[in-house]
Design goal:
Order of helices and strands of chain B: HHHHHHHHHHHH
Largest interface: A-B, 39 and 28 residues
CATH class of chain B: Mainly Alpha
Shape of chain B: globular
Helix content of chain B: over 70%
Radius of gyration of chain B: 20 Å
Largest sheet of chain B: none
Helix content of chain A: 25-40%
CATH superfamily of chain B: ABC transporter involved in vitamin B12 uptake, BtuC
Strand content of chain A: 25-35%
Largest sheet of chain A: 6 strands, mixed
Distance between the termini of chain B: 17 Å
Radius of gyration of chain A: 19 Å
Number of domains of chain B: 1
CATH topology of chain B: ABC transporter involved in vitamin B12 uptake, BtuC
Shape of chain A: globular
Distance between the termini of chain A: 43 Å
Number of strands of chain B: 0
CATH architecture of chain B: Orthogonal Bundle
CATH class of chain A: Alpha Beta
Oligomer: heterodimer
Strand order of the largest sheet of chain A: 6-7-8-3-9-10
């Protein structure tokens, strides 16, 4: 598995700099959260890391390879991007939606699919616990089911990295926790081991520790579940490190302008906010 | 897709021979009676090319409609949105102006040739806009919430309305009343009095166009998840757009060149096909081509048989059937039955 490296990366949109030059080297097998107020450049950063926005300066590297040197297909195989929102244009069945994730591998269509493609789809369906929804059309899915289906679409492509833009938005508490659990298991290489297909899936999954990067608004979720937190403010990387450091009370005061206090144990912390 | 394709292919195989027998003069396939002494002639020189053209035009418009709805992620999209049909019509109208200047041998070809030039111009213009609106991976216009496709569609609409205005201008300035009535009549679309020449002209172009659309099919599937997700799956938005411009330009341009403006086929046919498929855009293209062929074939037989003094124009007939049908479909969709 390869590291995902931002090297002097800056991003412009509409002629304006939205991400100022920053360096970050992300490790596979970890879950990194990008936090920051609205308009801080979180979505732009994650899109640039996914290769969907070209850097204004600097570059994104995957291991030794520059992202801009990879073909669109190879980039798509390595980096799975889950956009914000859950936009599904046609009333397609869940299984077909998940299979779309196989597009970079050329076997999104059933007729063209080999054993590896089938196993990847099955293990993605199992990893997100949507076995029962397989034939359900998209219009009949609840918000949580939709989110899980769309995550399964990304996982079906077996990317080295899963990059998700606010995957927990619009989900209730229980679904937020289950969703982050699914993402957490990606970093543990457990995706395949849970696969209903058994041996094939398990073998693929073993040691396949994906890296996960997510944009998160809920600071408590970031504190409790991320291995590392990047905090953006006005396009600048103002904090980067373990959640305890990057989301320490002074940082929150500085970036969000909120006086706050972390309560509870490590791994089960809650944020209490005071007046401005 | 396979099920829907088989359904419409079988239907087409049944309809084509029936359409050959239907018309002002009914031909009895078993009889050798003298009711229709020119039966062989009617069959081979009038009805067979007409049926072939109906199949070609219908297939092209059906496939173009399916691809267009897939690309714009909208079931109300129509291939006319790219402005190709209006530009082809403008070219054809221009030929009524220049027709008198050419030798008779050339004049016969000037209409389809001018229509194809019009369609080609529209395609070139669209490709130029595509190159700009989709420049660099993200698109110059933000690359955010669907910037590229929305912008491109607007550009197509502008081409369509400009071509429409110029066509209207050409009509009001028509050189003589005869030319005027010719133009208006032609704009309404018909397959009357077509020969094998038109079949050989439109057939290969439409086949090429459907081929281009079929190549775009997988990318259209990925667009189901939105523009950003599609790009993250490795889709090159510009390559996809160019394929679509080529595919829709060839199918629609060739159809207008030989049959005039025939509306509603591209809009309605994908709706007829969708319930028989898994609703993925790629599953619609081939069945929509077959269903479009069936629809135009049936409609053309209907206008042939209908007891009017002059034959009802095919374009008008399809709109007459199409508009109420589409209304019914919308109401049904609203109730959630579709």
């Amino acid at each position: 598995m390869r590291r995902l490296i931002a090297d002097g990366l800056s991003v412009n949109r509409g002629g304006r700099q939205v991400v100022a030059p920053l360096n970050a080297s992300l490790e596979p097998g970890t879950l990194t959260a990008i936090c920051g107020p609205n308009g801080a450049g979180k979505s732009s950063l994650i899109m640039a890391l996914s290769g969907l926005l070209s850097p204004a300066r600097g570059e994104v590297r995957l291991g030794d390879a520059r992202l801009s040197d990879l073909s669109a297909k190879n980039r798509a195989k390595a980096l799975g991007y889950l956009p914000q929102g859950s936009d599904i244009a046609w009333d397609v069945a869940v299984e077909s939606l998940v299979a779309l994730g196989r597009h970079p591998h050329g076997d999104a269509v059933r007729g063209a699919r080999g054993a590896a493609g089938r196993a990847a789809i099955e293990s993605a369906i199992a990893a997100t616990a949507i076995e029962g929804l397989r034939h359900r059309p998209a219009s009949q899915l609840s918000g949580g089911e939709r989110a899980r289906t769309l995550l399964a679409r990304v996982l079906a492509g077996e990317p080295d990295w899963v990059l998700a833009d606010e995957p927990l938005a619009a989900l209730d508490l229980a679904h937020q926790l289950s969703m982050i659990g699914h993402l957490r298991r990606c970093t543990q290489g457990a995706q395949g081991a849970q696969g209903a297909q058994g041996a094939q899936g398990a073998q693929d999954g073993l040691g396949h520790k994906q890296g996960v990067v997510i944009v998160l608004h809920d600071l408590a979720l970031a504190m409790n579940h991320a291995d590392r937190v990047l905090v953006l403010q006005n396009g600048r990387l103002v904090a980067d490190g373990l959640p305890e450091q990057a989301l320490a009370e002074p940082v929150i005061k500085e970036v969000w302008g909120i006086a706050s206090c972390w309560l509870g144990e490590p791994g089960a912390r809650a944020l209490v906010t005071g007046p401005k | 897709m396979i099920r829907a394709s088989i359904v419409f292919a079988v239907l087409l195989v049944v309809l084509v021979p029936l359409s050959l027998l239907a018309g002002r003069v009914w031909i009895d396939p078993f009889g050798t009676d003298s009711a229709a002494p020119n039966a062989a002639l009617i069959l081979m020189e009038l009805r067979a090319p007409r049926a072939a053209l109906a199949v070609i035009v219908g297939a092209g418009l059906g496939a173009a409609g399916a691809a267009m709805q897939g690309y714009l992620r909208n079931p109300l999209a129509d291939p006319g949105l790219f402005g190709i049909a209006p530009m082809a019509a403008l070219g054809a109208v221009a030929s009524f102006w220049t027709g008198g200047l050419l030798s008779p041998a050339l004049a016969a070809w000037s209409l389809p040739a001018f229509a194809l030039i019009g369609a080609g111009l529209a395609m070139a213009l669209l490709a130029l806009i595509a190159g700009r609106s989709m420049s660099d991976g993200a698109g110059r216009f933000g690359g955010g919430a669907g910037g590229g496709i929305a912008l491109f569609t607007l550009a197509g609409l502008m081409i369509a309305s400009l071509a429409g205005a110029l066509t209207a201008l050409a009509i009001t300035l028509a050189p003589n009343p005869f030319a005027l009535s010719q133009i208006v009549l032609w704009l309404n679309g018909a397959l009357t009095d077509r020969s094998w020449d038109e079949v050989w002209l439109a057939g290969p172009l439409v086949a090429l166009g459907i081929g281009a659309l079929a190549l775009a099919a997988r990318s259209l599937d990925a667009l189901t998840l939105g523009e950003e997700a599609a790009r993250s799956l490795g889709i090159d938005p510009r390559a996809l757009l160019w394929l679509l411009i080529a595919g829709i330009g060839l199918t629609v341009g060739a159809s207008v060149a030989v049959a005039g403006i025939i509306g509603f086929v591209g809009l309605i046919v994908p709706h007829l096909v969708r319930p028989l498929t898994d609703r993925m855009p790629s599953s619609l293209i081939l069945p929509s081509a077959l269903a479009g062929a069936c629809l135009v074939l049936v409609a053309d037989c209907a206008v042939r048989i209908a007891p009017f003094v002059t034959e009802l124009r095919l374009g008008i007939a399809l709109s007459l059937i199409g508009a109420p049908f589409f209304l019914w479909l919308l109401i049904k969709m609203r109730r959630g039955d579709v």
